[in-house]
Amino acid sequence: MRIPLVDLKTNYLSVQDEVEEKVGAILTSGSYILGENVEAFEQEVSQYIGARHSVAVNSGTDALHLALLSAGIKPGDEVITTPFTFAATVEAIVYVGAVPVFADVEKETFNLDVSRISDSLTEKTCAILPVHLFGHPARIDEIMDFAIINNLKVIEDCAQSFGAHFRSKYTGTFGDAGCFSFFPTKNLGCFGDGGLVTTNSYKIAEALRMYRNHGISKPYCHDVIGYNSRLDEIQAGILRVKLKMIDSYNLLRRNLACRYTQHLGELPMVQVPVELDEYGHVYNHYTIVSPSRDKIRNALASAGIASAIYYPLPLHLQKTFSYLGYREGDLPRAENLAKSVLSLPIYPELGIDKVDEICATIMACFCK
Ligand SMILES: Cc1ncc(COP(=O)(O)O)c(C=O)c1O
Fold first, then answer.
1. For ligand 1, what atom is nearest to the CA of residue 133?
2. Would you say residue 114 has pLDDT above 70?
3. 246-365: which CATH topology?
4. In CATH, what class is 8-104+111-243?
5. Does residue 131's CB lie within 6 angstroms of at least one atom of ligand 1?
6. Angle 246-264/352-365 helices, nearest 10 degrees?
7. Structure pTM?
8. Residue 195 CA: which ligand 1 atom is closest?
């Protein structure tokens, strides 16, 4: 495609010198696993996000899995979450033997509708797992109020929301744990797989450190069955370079989003992303909603412009979760979004002129 959805190579070239110097130093150090870069990266993220502890792991999926384990979620517990997310959110619930319970989403923010969470509450509910989808925070203050009243844990899925905030607090600092992904296409991405959990709980942080490293509490003492889920030194070193850029990356994304919205907000057939008052959106994706989604997508493809559908089928209707017994019509907002969302190219290196061109192509669809 002439205009790709993301451009990882150009991003790499913009940090190449510093990254190669860092990686070279790690390679010659002879220390590749749980060394000084992982520790320094954890401290730098804690400081940036404003969390007491950060524990780096090898993916966002493992961040979710190990955070649920460390927060004490057990087989048979129910965890309320959204059906409109990437499958990893819900897979992690299943990994710990818990039962995902889906609540419908808001059609404007695509995030959990707090009024639907209360409909899903039972005596087995132990936790809520909100996702800050596409970079817009879920209504996390209301979710926290509900969780405190009902004595529930909150595990935040921040895979798409590094740097997003509600008032002056970053996502990942509200609940018991915040789970980040550093998959290459994320706002803060490494050049491989990576993840991290933030928490203010010493107990959860200690459990996470054991679970990510074979249950080891001290050398060759295995206290629990753990996993091999460590972030490696090379990815941590790369992430340290890119963490210094995150504010400028997020600002560039926000400027591009603003330009998209200036153009596309005029179109009656297109719903542009909202940014609620007091919420800071970081636009991991710029996602529009339109009944003419397929027509727009085809016009973009003909002009050599990539787009993507996140997500074409909500999780409650996926084969893998059919055992949960949901049917079409159970979660209508998520189902309607799946039929009408379209994510447009957005990445720090995408110029405003490209956004203008993409918007002109979309606007032309409605003039025919
Ligand atoms: C919302 C959400 N949760 C979890 C994940 C899983 O992260 P990872 O790919 O790093 O395992 C992703 C990644 O795409 C995601 O978008």
1. 1
2. yes
3. Aspartate Aminotransferase, domain 1 (3.90.1150)
4. alpha beta
5. yes
6. 30
7. 0.98
8. 10
